[in-house]
């Protein structure tokens, strides 16, 4: 019931774009940039593109959630987001894999992001709805961001940045 839906939404928000991708980006930046040969500014394009794709996709996701409910968009979004992170482990230049990874991260984040989980939480709560939304939409990604950087730092130090992206 309600507890499972709230925990599920919490975990999905914690492990989504804001928590994992944004929370770890600064750690990946100096590790990945030298392998791309274009300096730090080249790798930041992934962040920029993912953010724009997500921003454009969020209203589309809202419309989709209104039409088909949350399960299909959320499931597809989680898989596409994870696929985008996995693609980043394979980048060697600013070629197709680079851009496809960024687009997948943004699209996956739109489909399995705040719009989707607002719907989940709002469906289950009439009382304390704002509290539940605060926990899912604010606390989950904030805690994840705080944990992501040191965890990814350890992964990169022990196994390299490519493996760290695969683990994420």
Helix-strand layout with pairing:
Blueprint: H1 2-14, H2 17-36, H3 40-68, H4 71-88, H5 96-111, H6 114-124, H7 129-159, H8 161-167
Helix pairs in contact: 1-6, 1-7, 2-3, 2-7, 3-5, 3-6, 4-5, 4-8, 6-7, 7-8
Short description:
The chain has 168 residues and is mostly helical.
Structural features, described:
The structure is a single chain. With 168 residues, the protein is mainly α. 86% of the residues lie in helices and 0% in strands. It is globular. The two termini are 28 Å apart.
Features:
168 residues, globular, mainly alpha, 8 helices, 0% strand
Total helices: the number is 8
Specify the overall morphology. Answer: globular
**Number of extended strands:** 0
Order of helices and strands: HHHHHHHH
In round numbers, the mean pLDDT is: 94
Overall radius of gyration: 16 Å
CA distance, first residue to last residue: 28 Å
Helix-residue proportion: over 70%
Oligomer kind: single chain
Alpha-beta classification:
mainly alpha
Low-confidence spans: pLDDT under 50, at least 5 residues?
none
Proportion in β-strands: under 5%
How can the largest sheet be summarized? none
